[in-house]
């Protein structure tokens, strides 16, 4: 153990680390045979007078992560007895190996479903410590990136239903955290783009975990989950960020804002739909979508998903306006016509051509709306005729190529080979085969 944490030659350190992280049953049993052995390694992370770094820190994290997985492991039980352990982890959170180890500890709810590791971390003010990384001075980009990565991993686990119930504990603690309001305010007020981008990533992830499970929830803003309530007060700032000039590229900030708007439209909260419509987020996103000074297909795909969400879900106000917005519908036609002209000249289509065409097709296929508040249908004859005459035929056309039977160059046909042999025998040239 002593050699592994740096008290010896480098080659001995690497060899001892390889043995301890092998996952062999007798090694794992040996480590946890006496409680002090495992605790000795865990305490190295909490020491204030000895800063671990480089190979030593990487090896220690590799060993500790490997020892977590076997069913006979007692490591997490020992983690809970080490005073200041979470604070020790936070000191090294900018290190990728420590970040991996934290994720492995949190993911114990997958391997050992009764470990309650996420709940234990939350009870140690883990979420407050994560959010406070954004509030530190000076700011460390590596540290805030690690925080965003950890939260993203938990959200992915929640949506994959591997640890749905355990991850919900994290969501509940997040919504009641005392630093949440200050964190959201900082994200929209900071001049540092890394804080803004990684902060928006965290907000977007947490929005997806707080959607209503009913078809359409009509509670007021005050009854929304805390992440929604805090974000609503910054909608004006969101609009300002969306309206900043692109300068030839979209950038991560607008991509993250696009994901946030998509999460808002998937929330199933009626009051959120109304506020998104009032602040004109859809118009701002479409302006960026049709800006030809950039070629950000990722952003255009997000906008396509947003439009598809509006036309296929009960988002009454926005769908009503989408069907009645002649300026947008005719803009779509103009963009498609211009793309066809570009193809005639250059023999290739611009990157927005197919996505714009699919948006037109989806609006046409969902051209009616019937809600208690709205009842309307698409009545722009120019748009309808253009889609029916050109877009539908183009979208629904099937290629004859995939209906044909194709044989590769090295395809071996037994019937052909048999006929070849028979014909050779008839000609009496069997010897030519050998």
From TrEMBL:
The entry's cellular-component GO terms read:
cytosol; nucleus
One GO MF annotation is: protein phosphatase regulator activity
Keyword Cell cycle among UniProt keywords: yes
Which PANTHER family did the record assign? FIERY MOUNTAIN, ISOFORM D, SIT4 YEAST -ASSOCIATING PROTEIN-RELATED
Q: What is the protein's given name?
A: Serine/threonine-protein phosphatase 4 regulatory subunit 3-like central domain-containing protein
- Similarity field: Belongs to the SAPS family.
| Source organism of the structure | Entamoeba invadens IP1
**Coiled coil residues, start to end:** none
Q: Does the keyword Ligase apply?
A: no
